[in-house]
Task: structure prediction
Amino acid sequence: MIPPAFAYHRPASINEATALLADLGEDARPLAGGHSLIPMMKLRLASPEHLVDLAGIAGLKGIRQDGNDIVIGAMTTQHELIASDQVAAKVPILRETALLIADPQVRYMGTVGGNVANGDPGNDLPAVMLCLGATYQVTGPGGERRVPARQFYRSAFVTALEVGEILTAVRIPAPPAGHGAAYEKLKRKVGDYATAAAAVVLTLNGDRIATCSIGLTNVADTPLWAEQAAQILAGSALDSATVKRAVAAAEAITSPASDTRGPPQYRTKMAGVMLARALARAREHAR
Ligand SMILES: Cc1cc2nc3c(=O)[nH]c(=O)nc-3n(C[C@H](O)[C@H](O)[C@H](O)COP(=O)(O)OP(=O)(O)OC[C@H]3O[C@@H](n4cnc5c(N)ncnc54)[C@H](O)[C@@H]3O)c2cc1C
Result:
C-alpha cells in the first residue's frame, strides 16, 4: 500500500522543528523511526499533509546520566537502548522490555520517543515508564515542560502533547541498587504486540516487599499504573493469598478491547497471569 502524498521537512534543530510544527498545525506530524506512523499512513488511518522528520536533530540522540536520572534522548533507537551498558546496569527492565518489541528490523529504526509518544496502548515501553515513575521532557514554541508519564496518556493515541510540541527526552529515576524488576509479555508470536503484559519494579526488606510499582500493557485504551495492586503487596512476603488479592485489584482496572488477540475476559485474566509471573521473577532478581 502506498501512503497518501505529503510534504517532507527535515529541520536541523529542536527550535526549528517546533516552529515548523506550530506553523503547520494539525496538518503536520513529527516523524521519528516511522515504524508506527508510516504503516498507519499506508492503511489510511493517518494522513498528515506534512511530515517533520526529527532524524537530523543531533540533540535528540543519546543516553546520559544526570544525577540519579537516566536521560534517554527521544531519537535513541530501541536497538541503542538494548545495546547500552548504562541502561543494562541501572534500569535493566528497559533492556528486557525493548528485547520484546517486534523484531530487530523494527528496533533498528523504531525510537524510544516514538514508542512512548505514539499513544498506542499496544506499545510496550509506556507501561514500563509508568512503573518506573519516568518524566517526559516536552518542548514547544512556548519552551520546555516536564510531564510525568503517569499523567501523559489520555486515551488511545491521545496524549498530553499539544500541537507544535515534541517529546525531546525521557527522564527515568534509576531504581535503587538491589531492586528487582521484570516485564512479562504474552504474545501470539515473535514480533506481535502484547495480548497482555505486566511490568514490576520492587525492592525487598528481608523477605518482605518494601516498595512495589506495577504497569500493565494493552489491557485498556491507555497503559495502566496499578497503584492499588502495588499497595496491597507492600509489606507482604508475596504469599499466594496476597498475590491473589493484588492480581484481582490489577484485573479490576483493566478494560481491554476485543481483537484478534482474544476477548476482553481472556485478556484481563492474562494480565493477571503476567503480573503474577512478573512479581515472582522480580523478587528473584532482588534476592
Ligand atoms: C511489524 C511491527 C511490529 C511491532 N511490534 C511492536 C511491539 O511488539 N511492541 C511495541 O512497543 N511496538 C511495536 N511496534 C512499533 C514500534 O516500536 C515503533 O517503532 C514505535 O511504536 C514508534 O516509534 P517510531 O520511532 O517508529 O515512531 P514513528 O512511527 O515515527 O511515530 C509514531 C508516532 O509518534 C509521534 N512521534 C514520534 N516521535 C515523536 C517525538 N519525539 N515527539 C512527539 N511525537 C513523536 C509521531 O508523530 C507518530 O504519531 C511494531 C512495529 C511494527 C512495524
Remarks:
- The radius of gyration is 19 Å.
- The mean pLDDT is 97.
- The pocket of flavin-adenine dinucleotide is lined by residues 29-37, 39, 54, 74, 101-102, 106, 110-111, 113-115, 117-118, 123-124, 161, 166-167, 191, 193 (CB under 6 Å).
- The first strand starts at residue 7 and ends at 9.
